[in-house]
Amino acid sequence: MAIRHGFMPGCSLPSYSPENIEKTIAYLRGVYPELSVVQKCCGKPTKSLGQVDLLQERFGSLIADIKDCKVDEMLVACQNCYNMLRESDAFTTISLWERMPQIGLPQEVRGKATNSDVVFSIHDSCPVRDNHAIHDGIRWIMQELGYKTAEPERTRDKARCCGFGGMIVPVNPELAKKVMGRRVQEMPTQHVVVYCAACRSSMLMGGAKAWHILDLIWGPVVSQSSQPPENVLASPVKAWVNRYKSKGVIARSIK
Amino acid sequence: MAVQFAEKVYSLAKEIAEDCQGLEAPFCVAECPMHTDALGYIRHIREGKLEEAVRSIREKLFLPGTLGRICAHPCEKACRRETEFKQPLAIAALKRYAADKADREELWDVSVGADTGKRVAVVGSGPAGAQAAIDLRKAGHKVTIYDRLPVRGGMLRVGIPAYRLPHKVLDFEYSYLDRLGISFQLGVEVGKSVTLDTLRAQYDAVILAHGAHLGIVPPVNGGGSGGVTNAVEFLREIAFTEKCAVMGTNVLVIGGGDVAMDCARSALRAGAEKARIVCLENECALPASRHEQEAAIAEGVQFDYGWCVEEIVRENGRPVSVRLKDCLSLWDETGKFNPVLGSETSMATCDTIIYAIGQRVDDISRGQLPQKAGGRYVVDPDTLATDLGGVFVAGDAAGSTIAVEAMALGRKAALSADRYLRGQSLTEGRNFKLERSYKTEYDVPVPEGTEDLARHHSELVDAAVRRTNFLECDRGFDENAANKEASRCLECECKECMQECLMLNEFTACPGELFSIFLAKEQVDAIVPYSCNLCNQCTLVCPKEFKLADAFMSMRKDFVRANKGKSPLKGHGAIDIHQKLSFSRVFTIKRKGRE
Ligand SMILES: Cc1cc2nc3c(=O)[nH]c(=O)nc-3n(C[C@H](O)[C@H](O)[C@H](O)COP(=O)(O)OP(=O)(O)OC[C@H]3O[C@@H](n4cnc5c(N)ncnc54)[C@H](O)[C@@H]3O)c2cc1C
Description:
- The complex is a heterodimer.
- Chain A is an alpha/beta fold.
- Chain A has two domains: 5-103 and 236-253, Rossmann fold (3-Layer(aba) Sandwich); 109-231, Rossmann fold (3-Layer(aba) Sandwich), CATH 3.40.50.
- Chain A contains eleven helices and eight strands.
- Chain A has helices spanning 12-16, 18-31, 44-49, 52-68, 79-85, 96-103, 132-145, 173-185, 197-205, 213-218, 236-253; strands at residues 5-8, 36-39, 73-76, 92-95, 119-122, 148-150, 191-194, 209-212.
- In chain A, the strands form two sheets. Chain A has a four-stranded parallel sheet. Chain A has a four-stranded parallel sheet with strand order 6-5-7-8, sandwiched between helices.
- Chain A is globular.
- The mean pLDDT of chain A is 97.
- Chain B is of the alpha/beta class.
- Chain B folds into four domains: 7-21 and 494-580, no CATH class; 25-108 and 460-486, Orthogonal Bundle (Fumarate Reductase Iron-sulfur Protein, Chain B, domain 2), CATH 1.10.1060; 119-213 and 361-435, 3-Layer(bba) Sandwich (FAD/NAD(P)-binding domain), CATH 3.50.50; 217-357, FAD/NAD(P)-binding domain (3-Layer(bba) Sandwich).
- Chain B has 24 helices and 16 strands.
- In chain B, the strands form four sheets. A five-stranded parallel sheet of chain B has the order 3-2-1-4-15, with helices on both faces.
- The longest helix of chain B is centred in the last third of the chain and has 19 residues, at 403-421.
- Chain B is elongated and about 125 Å long.
- Chains A and B meet through strand 2, helix 3, helix 4, helix 8 and helix 11 of A and helix 20, helix 23, helix 24 and strand 16 of B.
């Protein structure tokens, strides 16, 4: 029997950009016509707070959703989801960034940024420090797009946290701000590419110009004069409106 | 909110509290019997903060300029640049540099504790007695130091020659004792003009720190009358007069240690035409430190290695030569000092013989205190207490052989005496390990790519000039050399996670401290575990790979359990709402792809 694929965008990405969700689903459906999509949280924030019982219940409801869709292999765009879902053996979990090099980028985006004058510093997501295939995937994508990249001193398996981790922002915001600022300081260039929407928000708070890698794949070519998309996640209202829109996008994409 | 923490939290905390190296002393500091913060003051020197450096040295040592010149610096043997590259930091010379450049009376901490009404007599004004007096005075006791000599400083003043340690450096540093209000009875010999019993009757406690001032002279044929002396008496006379009345012009010093070097070099300065050292050891096994030996050779001291003096030949009562026998080995199979002589003989001319083969401790208790090898008193090694109530022994009289060790014993005796005076247990709650030189647990590997940089040396006055007088011969570091030397320090302390994690810096000096406090209180402020990014960056850099995030995460769970399933911190209300919505029907969707 053929493998059934699923896609899970997570929380911060749909809150950030329904457009990216829409285009990513379309791209994946081009490769996996039977694609299922689940928009729900993986429960990482609940876990981080230490709410063991609540987590079990919430995580259980997510796994049930995925099982309902009869998914064998789940593609995830969020690194926390990646780690969380890998705890379940009901299906396999793979990062979108690891998969993209395997299935290739659409012809129309390849090499699109060859003439860009921007050098992007890569900020890796710290929860997947051990996963080299993800790091490689990101660099492959950047190269395919034609962007030049630079690495901070602490990168890949030594990547520093963006400052968002551990749910410290609401309880120790000054500290979080310092951590964000320090991470940005480390970046060799002003422009930063991330592959987590929460990291992007942190990089912006720390003073960098930051883009999500999906912005670079699906959006306009970035040049020195481009401004990064606004920090949507800093505004709860906009973020929830987007999350709701993303839900609509999914409903429309998969009928 | 009192939280009951799970066993997992405690076991992680214990592991971290016990094995974290964050508070482990660097090699040099652990090795120093006084635990002077060499790493700290060397850092100050490198940063050009010389007053800070002096302040830091003075927290442990009242004699920075003195020890900077003459300390036998066991720290340098322990220095990582020694164990790795055989080129230790010039720690002592850096100390001297800081002291020479920046020590001023205004920096001295002359505060003393509230008067306890107790009185203590200290016998001996050497480094041990002085240190004991300082500590007892600071604890609020009245202290009187007795010394049979008219000068203060013990062997630092009447043993070590002035060309190594100028009297004015020592005298200036000893004036600290006057500033503290310590009294002196100079020219009073305890055991003669005043007995130990009298002191015990007049004072509440007595510290014996009268050093080892009996020069050893073995029975040798022809040794009986004039022209023969010993290092203690010779150097004492030199210290007072820069001369030696019994000395002729052709001096033979017997012994191979630093004291022998001091004698031979002093003899030249006091007018001897020739100075020759005869020792049992062969050249490479000479106990003297290399720089002393080299300096002596440069000044014209001659060496006869591997010889034993068999007989002193006299004419008209005056020595004219010695008969030597070759020495085949020094130690027997059991490791005991047991020289084996050969059959070869040789003669060496001389008119004066100075024995520099060791010093003994005199018994000033009139037989009340048992003594062991070298006359050292039998004492409790942890407390330095004797069988006589209120009598403690310090310094060389208790077994030290170098000044900084003598000071550590002075401090130890003072600690015991203070407890005795307050009617407290001499031992309870004391960490004896920290009262002496110890091996640090610090074992972070040397950073990769660490270069072997050459040690800097200070300049010596030209040998031909310096051998004619008792002026100081080591010029000390200039600023450039001091800065360069200071920057060779490898800073052997584990601050890996503290350099990495901003959060830890908000709450502690190192995880070991944080978790020790947690274990002691069995509580922690919720903001601590909830400020961790759970990013494991600390684990990445930790030589022990401690999982602090796991410990904090476990603590969080216990906080939630104790708080009806919620985080105890208000700010997390926003996360609660976020999570509710993220799982709510309104914002979630599942869409199954076609079968
Ligand atoms: C020649 C020589 C060179 C040395 N060089 C070094 C060196 O370079 N570096 C180093 O670290 N160490 C050196 N040492 C060792 C160091 O000097 C001693 O370890 C240290 O001074 C011992 O200190 P102390 O206080 O126990 O005794 P001491 O310094 O010996 O002081 C004892 C004091 O007690 C007094 N005294 C003795 N008997 C009586 C009595 N009955 N009544 C009253 N007072 C009395 C003495 O006059 C003396 O002042 C050297 C020793 C000698 C002999």
